[in-house]
Design a protein that fits this description.
Blueprint: E1 2-6, E2 12-16, H1 21-30, H2 32-52, E3 57-65, H3 78-82, H4 88-95, H5 98-108, E4 112-116, E5 142-144, E6 149-156, E7 165-171, E8 174-179, E9 182-186, E10 193-194, E11 201-208, E12 214-218, H6 221-231, E13 232-236, E14 243-250, H7 253-311, H8 318-345, H9 353-377, H10 381-415, E15 421-429, H11 438-463, H12 470-474, E16 480-485, H13 488-502, H14 514-517, H15 522-537, E17 545-549, H16 557-570, E18 575-579, H17 599-603, H18 609-612, E19 614-615, E20 621-624, H19 633-637, H20 640-652, E21 655-659, H21 668-673, E22 678-684, H22 690-702, E23 709-715, H23 725-733
Parallel strand pairs: 16-23, 17-21, 17-22, 18-20, 18-21, 22-23
Antiparallel strand pairs: 1-2, 3-14, 3-15, 4-12, 5-6, 6-11, 7-8, 7-12, 8-9, 10-11, 13-14, 19-20
Domain AAA: 545-683
Protein name: Tyrosine-protein kinase
Coiled coil: 269-310, 355-385
């Protein structure tokens, strides 16, 4: 959608918020070689990175976590209640814990780093030197190549120097340890190296120094553990299967396999230690109970023997013997439940199903015991007493024997604990590296290059406010008298001129008129169209003076002025060109003039009209150069002699073309415009914005100069504007 607005000068401004998809496509087509080149370059860089980058390998293994049963031997049916499925997520976090990984770091000496002192970038791409055939290569805390073989058995530093690099050098065949350029310790390789304060301690294993220094670093346990976690992946296979997959990635196949196996071994070991620890706690509890039960049994036996001696032997009837056996059995069960309750209460609350089951069993046994006690109360007093004493002895004896059996069982369990975790598959390294994925990297790099190049084109187009079509000026109420295409021939001339300037020989070299050198050029055809438009535009003008100005330097005013004059002269009109740019004018180069005697000479009174007005080699075309550069160009233009000059030229010629400096730079054009009957401005394609042209016109209007319209110069043939004016000029230049 487009919404019209009117500015202070009365011109119509149109705000266009539509997205022109055809123009966007045209912009991309114009920059297709940039897009293609950037995409191909990014693709090649991605491929190069894929081949140069260090390959990353992957080792994997499997663990099984079995259901964990209660470890309290001899408790019986409660094991089923106390057993529970081990949470896979909890086991995964346990594998990744510092408890397990810290043991791996200590076991493999991963907290000691030893590497050659090389540049970070160049050294990283240096090919590894081959090691002697059959020679061991240290996985950790060591370095080996064809010349160097050094291993570290122990390296300890204060906490403040953790993760700090030390330099290990060979001096006279002996190892020397440096930190920050200062010697820390030096001595024979087969003896420990210590600093003066004893805080730094180094013990070497192998010492075969080569030609380069080594960087020795003692890493903090947290740094190494975090590094392991970054490369370690642990997950459950399926849901509630108890199968855990572990994988570890890294550039060294031997290292990643050793690390993953060490993680699995230490995880299994801690699981076994945990199970044995539970058995140990149960054993400690029973060892505390045994002396008490032994003492109780001894007291009961002594009381029974004393009573028998006192009352002589008392035989129990079969019925009484049966009651005694039942009572002993119940007492034994109650005591066993008491022990169970002591252990269960340490793990569960009274609301737990296991605890509630124990309480229910105890209440049931106590009920049976109460019934038996009623039967005992009906017996004679002597039999009641002997029954109670024999009950105490047999119950305590049975409990004591049971506890002894349980102690033996726990000791056997502690010695033969295997845990509920086992290694199914030990670590193996996949033969092919998992990174870098060359195809994916190349595809992503190419896609990124494509996106960046397209984004660059669109962003550049979005921020480029330069005029690209005459319609942009017409929408603002600015008449466009001509749209001049960019001339390839003129570009060649410009390149030649630039080359001459670089050699400092082309400052005064003449420039051929395009209207003479290539009359069929598209730019000249556009100027012929301008010639027709000027015929009607100047019919209502006050005089024959046509001023050509512009908003900024480099828009092509001189090119348009010189070639327009030649086109007008070719149809028989008498034309004079006046270079009123007395600051940087170079129109004299188009007409093979030295420019030393010209307008400034006439206005300052140093020359008359006959001396400054010269006839060019083009028939009907005369020229007045700028002359020598004066210190006060604007003051000279304001002199009455300039007005008199315009009047005399208007009498002698059909058209007076005046080329002026840019209005936004200096005020000269505003002075000349007050004497011109017709005024035009030249804007360059893609360089001058609509806002800049609007400001230019306002500047003239502030000085009472009316701008008839604009000439859009140097229109480039692009896909984004190929459907416009350019096509028409192309048609006019085609040869049949």
């Amino acid at each position: 959608m487009s919404s019209p607005q009117t500015d202070n000068s009365g011109r119509l401004n149109v705000i266009n918020d539509e997205i022109d998809l055809r123009r966007l496509w045209g912009l991309l087509m114009d920059a297709r070689w940039l897009v293609i080149g950037t995409t191909v370059l990014a693709l090649l860089l991605g491929l190069a990175y894929g081949f140069v980058a260090t390959p990353i390998y992957k080792a994997d293994g499997l663990l099984q976590v079995e259901p964990k049963t209660g470890s309290m031997a001899g408790i019986g049916d409660l094991n089923e209640l106390l057993s529970q499925e081990s949470s896979a997520e909890a086991e995964i976090q346990l594998i990744r814990s510092r408890m397990v990984l810290g043991q791996v770091v200590d076991q493999l000496h991963m907290d000691i780093g030893l590497a050659p002192d090389r540049l970070p970038l160049i050294g990283g791409f240096r090919a590894p030197e081959p090691t002697p055939e059959g020679a061991p290569v240290p996985l950790f805390a060591g370095f080996r190549d064809s010349e160097t073989y050094v291993t570290v058995n122990h390296f300890n530093v204060p906490d403040g120097l953790l993760d700090e690099p030390f330099t290990l050098q060979s001096e006279d065949g002996q190892p020397a340890l440096y930190y920050d350029g200062e010697l820390v310790a030096k001595g024979p390789a087969d003896q420990p190296l210590r600093s003066e304060d004893g805080g730094i301690h180094l013990e070497l294993g192998e010492w075969q120094p080569g030609g380069e220094d080594l960087i020795l670093t003692k890493y903090s346990i947290l740094t190494v553990v975090n590094g392991i976690r970054a490369n370690l992946a642990v997950s459950e296979v399926g849901k509630q299967t108890g199968i855990i997959n572990m994988s570890y990635t890294g550039p060294n196949q031997g290292r990643i396999r050793a690390v993953l196996n060490a993680i699995a071994d230490n995880y299994v070991l801690q699981n076994i230690q945990r199970t044995a620890e539970e058995a140990e706690k149960s054993l400690e509890f029973l060892d505390q109970q045994l002396p008490e039960i032994k003492s109780t049994l001894t007291n009961a036996e002594e009381k029974l023997n004393a009573y028998r001696l006192k009352s002589e032997s008392v035989d129990l009837s079969l019925e009484t013997q049966s009651v005694l056996e039942r009572l002993v059995s119940i007492e034994a069960k109650l005591n066993e439940l008491k022990i169970k309750e002591s252990e269960v209460s340490a793990r569960f609350t009274r609301e737990h199903p296991a605890y509630r089951t124990l309480l229910q069993q105890r209440r049931s046994l106590e009920g049976e015991k109460a019934e038996i006690n009623k039967q005992i109360n009906e017996l004679p007093e002597t039999q009641q007493e002997i029954l109670r004493l024999m009950r105490d002895v047999e119950v305590n004896q049975e409990i004591y024997v049971a506890l002894l059996n349980k102690v033996q069982e726990l000791r056997i369990m502690r010695a033969s604990t295997v845990g509920n975790v086992r290694v199914i598959d030990s670590a193996l390294v996949q033969p092919e590296p998992v990174k870098p994925q060359k195809g994916l990297i190349a595809a992503l790099a190419g896609l990124l290059g494509l996106m960046m190049s397209v984004g660059h084109v669109l962003v550049r187009a979005a921020f480029n406010r330069g005029v690209e079509t005459p319609d942009q000026l017409e929408e603002q109420g600015i008449s466009v008298y001509a749209a001049v295409p960019l001339s390839e021939s003129q570009q060649k001339l410009d390149r030649v001129m630039a080359a001459l300037r670089r050699r400092k020989r082309g400052k005064h070299e003449p420039i051929s008129l395009l209207a003479e050198k290539d009359p069929g050029d598209l730019a000249i055809e556009a100027l012929r169209s301008l010639r027709t438009s000027l015929h009607f535009a100047m019919m209502e003008a006050d005089n024959k003076v046509l001023m050509i100005s512009g908003p900024s330097p480099g828009v092509g005013k001189s090119f348009v002025t010189a070639n327009l004059a030649a086109v007008l002269a070719q149809v028989g009109q008498r034309v004079v060109v006046v270079d009123a740019d007395m600051r940087k004018g170079h129109l004299h180069r188009y007409f093979e003039n030295d420019g030393q005697t010209g307008l400034s000479s006439f206005l300052s009174g140093q020359a008359d009209l006959d001396q400054v007005l010269v006839q060019t080699k083009e028939e009907n075309l005369s020229f007045i150069s700028r002359g020598q550069i004066p210190p006060n160009p604007a003051e000279l233009l304001m002199h009455k002699r300039f007005g008199e000059l315009m009047d005399k030229l208007s009498e002698q010629f059909d058209l007076v073309l005046v080329d002026t400096p840019p209005i936004l730079a200096v005020t000269d054009a505003a002075i000349v415009g007050q004497l011109a009957g017709t005024s035009l401005i030249v804007a360059r394609y893609g360089q001058n914005s609509v806002k800049e042209i609007d400001v230019t016109i306002n500047r003239f209007e502030q000085n009472k100069v009316t701008i008839k319209g604009a000439i859009l110069n140097c229109i480039e043939r692009r896909a984004s504007n190929e459907y416009g004016y350019y096509s028409y000029y192309k048609y006019s230049s085609d040869k049949s």
